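User: Just a sanity check before I run the rest of the batch. Below are the structure tokens for the first item. I only need the designed sequence back.
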């Protein structure tokens, strides 16, 4: 497993790892988050799970997502819900391609954290029905104004309601991942799938190239945990799912060059006149093959595991 590098070798004790329940040493890997917030990020020395400490309380988390995060996201993306919708359509099409092997025309689908509904609209022609859940009122209202069916909470969903539940860059935001998986399982049909995308802590910009400016950009107060394929599978295994993991590299060689040159984001396709599609494809394949792809795509089958042979990995 690639070694994640950070600004300090400081060790802290008396924490309990969410994945492996270890109470052994935890390494400090960052002490500054995005938006200038000073908070620590630790990595478990036993299983490598990275996490923020201290975590937000449930009330702080509720307030953050209902009142603050939508504004932060809009400011960060520099767009309204309508503009966010248009801006994210290419990503929605990419998620659809990743998800196609796991969906069918008869499926009932739920997306948790659907933002402005771009993925729901993209997948709707390929399944029987779609439904969204979005905690931020402005984004949820925008979805409703476009005719999308919306739920207020998981508790409002009937048991065994959905064939597929989608979580795109949502699970890392969850402070109680085991409890959340139990809640999602309740609304997922037997033998249904939970499809999720999360950042990969083995991202080359952090774990391979060790770019100092990337650290306070990568770690954000919105993310409780940072998973690797191994820690995500271990967590899902413990929750009784059959888990299939694929790693992808979403950002291109230009983006990585600009991080190395300027220490900031925004370099996607910057050198497209020089870096060919084949070069970018080869670069992505190399990072994925070495375990340094920036994104984890996981499919959790709602089957009880009988042994570890059910775990599958691909790059």
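Assistant: Here's the designed sequence for the first item:
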């Amino acid at each position: 497993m690639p070694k994640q590098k950070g600004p300090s070798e400081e060790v802290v004790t008396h924490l309990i790892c969410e994945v492996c329940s270890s109470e052994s040493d935890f390494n400090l890997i960052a002490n500054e988050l995005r938006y200038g917030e000073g908070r620590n990020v630790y990595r478990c020395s036993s299983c490598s799970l990275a996490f923020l400490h201290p975590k937000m309380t449930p009330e702080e988390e509720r307030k953050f997502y209902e009142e603050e995060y939508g504004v932060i996201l809009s400011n960060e993306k520099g767009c309204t819900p309508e503009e966010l919708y248009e801006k994210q359509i290419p990503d929605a099409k990419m998620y659809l391609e990743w998800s196609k092997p796991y969906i069918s025309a008869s499926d009932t689908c739920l997306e948790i954290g659907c933002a402005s509904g771009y993925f729901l609209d993209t997948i709707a022609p390929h399944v029987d029905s779609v439904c969204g859940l979005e905690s931020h009122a402005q984004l949820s209202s925008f979805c409703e104004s476009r005719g999308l069916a919306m739920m207020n909470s998981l508790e409002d969903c009937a048991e065994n309601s959905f064939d597929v539940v989608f979580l795109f860059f949502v699970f890392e935001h969850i402070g109680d991942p085991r409890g959340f998986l139990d809640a999602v399982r309740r609304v997922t049909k037997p033998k249904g799938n939970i499809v999720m995308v999360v950042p990969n802590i083995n991202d080359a910009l952090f774990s391979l190239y060790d770019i100092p400016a990337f650290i306070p950009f990568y770690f954000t107060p919105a993310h409780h945990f940072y998973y690797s394929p191994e820690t995500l599978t271990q967590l899902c295994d413990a929750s009784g799912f059959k888990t299939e993991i694929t790693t992808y590299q979403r950002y291109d060689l230009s983006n990585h060059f600009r991080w190395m040159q300027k220490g900031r984001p925004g370099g996607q396709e910057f050198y497209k006149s020089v870096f060919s599609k084949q070069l970018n494809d080869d670069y992505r394949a190399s990072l994925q093959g070495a375990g340094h792809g920036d994104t984890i795509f996981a499919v959790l089958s709602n089957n009880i595991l009988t042994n570890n042979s059910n775990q599958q990995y691909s790059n």
